[in-house]
Amino acid sequence: MANISIISTTSVVQAASTNKPATARRIEFNSMGAPVSSYGSNPKYLFYPLGATVNDDDKTTCFFLDCNVSGAQFIHAAAGSVTVAGILESVDVPRIVHYFFPFNNGVLNFEGVSQPLLGVQVTELVDGIFIGCTVNHSVADGASFWHFFNTWSEISRGSGEIITSSPVFDRCFLNDVNNVHFPIPIPQSRLPFRPLTRSPNSLPPSLQERVFHFRKEKIEALTARANAEMGTNKISSLQALSAHLFRPLTRCRRLPEDQETKYMFLIDARPRTSPPFPAQYFGAATQSGTVTMKAG
Questions:
Q1: pLDDT tens digits, one per residue of 12-57
Q2: DSSP secondary structure string for all residues of 183-239
Q3: Under 8 Å CB-to-CB from 67, ≥6 apart: which residues?
Q4: 112 pLDDT band (50/70/90 cuts)?
Q5: Do 56 and 78 meet the contact criterion of CB atoms below 8 Å apart?
Q6: 27: closest CA among 15, 17, 39?
Q7: Cα(125)–Cα(121) distance, rounded to whole angstroms?
Q8: Higher-confidence residue: 258 or 181?
Q9: Rounded Cα gap, residues 209 and 161, in angstroms
Q10: Predicted confidence (pLDDT) at residue 111 exceeds the cutoff of 70
Q11: Please, which contacts does 266-270 make with residues 24 or more away whose CB atoms are closer than 8 Å?
Q12: Over the stretch 70-98, which tens digit does the pLDDT of each residue have?
């Protein structure tokens, strides 16, 4: 495997404004694991929760984001023998790609009390660069991450302080729902289980990875076939493709035909709440959906 040399590792922190110095801020976590703020966001400090740390100084089940400008981790590295084609044209994902991401030793969400919530690594290749990002899932879900990344890209292209879509941190509509005020603090001493700790099995097994690309026309044909076989027109492209992938996965597991197996999806909760969350809601606003069926 090619070697990676680390050129520099720094913490990127929020710069103090000339008019108003940067101050520490506290953001509570609600029951959905999303940050709750009692103040409006300042456009000068876009996505500032990603430079915070997780804190539980009151020793209850409630954690909060301590916006103490600890900063995100930025790593500059080089892989002098790796080419762009060597990554993109490989049938399987090259093992070295795992090391193009920060915290590749497997940082867990609860370790945000001591680890940065966002890490960015820029690795120089022979003929290009690879940008790898790692974010703590208790702070942001996939939609929020891509909002951050696309905004960063937009600013890098020279948009200045005018961006297409600012993040929304206001969560006041979550308070006093059904006369319940969030968060609900429960002393850790009253919990029937021990606080989380890292176990020897925290890291996932080393598996060979492969990325599959499905062209638009293939997905359309697959969706049409699924609807024709079921005599309906209500099967979506997501459902058709998910079922297409689930069948060979189930076969590879060699389960008994009468054994139940599950397929779990992460669903964006923003448009599904009442009232709906703003599309720019920044946080972890996901819920799981599970499909259960017989393996045979």
A1: 554 444 343 334 444 444 434 434 333 333 333 578 788 877 776 6
A2: P---BGGG-SSPPP---TT-SPP----------HHHHHHHHHHHHHHHT-S---HHH
A3: 24, 25, 26, 27, 48, 49, 51, 52
A4: confident
A5: no
A6: 39
A7: 12
A8: 258
A9: 39
A10: yes
A11: 266/141, 266/142, 268/141, 268/143, 269/32, 270/143
A12: 778 888 999 888 999 999 999 999 988 98
**Per 3-state DSSP, what percentage of the chain is helix, strand, and coil (rounded to 5)?**
30, 25, 50
The sheet with strand 118-124 has its strands ordered as 5-12, 72-78, 118-124, 129-135
What does pTM read for this prediction? 0.76
Six-digit token string for 15: 């710069």
Residue 192, token pair as written in the block: 């029937």
Q: Are 74 and 103 in contact (CB under 8 A)?
A: no
